[in-house]
Specification:
Shape: globular
Structural class: alpha+beta
Order of helices and strands: HHEEEEEEEEEHEEEEH
Number of strands: 13
Helix content: 10-25%
Strand content: 25-35%
Oligomer: single chain
Mean pLDDT: 81
Radius of gyration: 26 Å
Distance between the termini: 93 Å
Number of helices: 4
């Protein structure tokens, strides 16, 4: 009788794994061992796991940065302040989440994706400042407000100040790096800039198969720089916004369209604006942030 051939035991657990699983383990082992892994292969792994760990996060779960102008009263430009950022100057632009600073003369590229007008209620400085709530035009509480000597709407009982504010939601572009969601808030003297920006977007006309049409706000990207402004003996920095070019990157356009949808559906929550002065120094009492 012929002797039954013995089957040798598996030499390694990986030999029992499916080919795909084994390849992933080998790739991960190469990384952990400090070995070289082709970039394309690693990117394929990342693509396979795209979105993992973020499944339960919605638009309200992300910190959307405000893009703000630093003024001479901003803590970020004062060496004596704990929030000082080295190398900053009045007129620079700040990303409030990353703390990244942009030269206001060069500015930033921004794709507007959504707009919201709000009456923002703030605690007075004497009460410690801080955001209280947002209100739409026509809210009954607005009928109970009185104007103070500065012309501001004030709640007499609490002393809270109500500020007419325009929010522009959009994508902040970073060259070759992915764009990020951001919001620019404008009030007081900058409301005029907001209206001019809206008018510019409305006046853009393109031609299609069915004739002329007004494209979506996120069809174009805008250069946002800062310029000096004055009123009486006061001076500050404000926005200057001009059309840069039409959006040409399809992936960026899709991202902008998706953000616009999120804003329109009310899925983007506005947090308190940053603690920097976005208005003229002394021309009127600042919103306490």
């Amino acid at each position: 009788m012929k002797k039954k051939e013995e089957v040798p035991p598996a030499s390694a657990p990986a030999a029992q794994q499916p080919p795909v699983a084994a390849a992933k383990e080998t790739a991960l082992q190469a990384i952990s061992d400090g070995g070289e892994l082709q970039k394309s292969a690693f990117n394929d792994m990342l693509a396979e796991d795209a979105g993992a760990g973020l499944e339960n996060m919605g638009a309200n779960d992300f910190a959307i940065p405000f893009i703000s102008i630093l003024q001479k009263g901003s803590p970020q430009v004062s060496r004596a302040n704990a929030k000082f950022i080295d190398g900053t100057a009045p007129g620079d632009i700040m990303n409030t989440v990353t703390q990244e600073i942009y030269d206001g003369r060069e500015g930033i590229l921004f794709i507007p994706c959504g707009y919201m007008k709000s009456i923002v209620r703030w605690k007075s400085r004497d009460s410690g400042g801080g955001l209280v709530s947002h209100h739409k035009e026509g809210d009954p509480i607005l009928k109970t407000l009185k104007r103070n000597e500065r012309g501001q709407l004030v709640h007499e009982e609490s002393g809270d100040v109500f500020i007419d504010t325009a929010y522009h939601f959009g994508l902040l572009l970073h060259g070759e790096a992915p764009p990020e969601w951001a919001v620019v808030s404008m009030y007081s003297t900058q409301l005029k800039k907001s209206r001019m920006w809206n008018t510019t977007m409305r006046r853009i006309v393109m031609r299609g198969a069915q004739g002329s049409f007004n494209p979506p706000s996120f069809s174009h990207q805008y250069r946002m720089t800062t310029v000096g402004e004055t009123k009486d003996t006061y001076d500050w920095f404000g926005w200057k916004i001009v059309v840069e070019s039409q959006v040409s990157d399809l992936d960026v356009y899709k991202m902008a369209r998706e953000f616009s949808k999120q804003v329109e559906e009310g899925n983007v929550r506005i947090s308190a604006p940053p603690q920097v002065f976005e208005e003229e120094e002394g021309a009127e009492e600042k919103v306490p942030f």
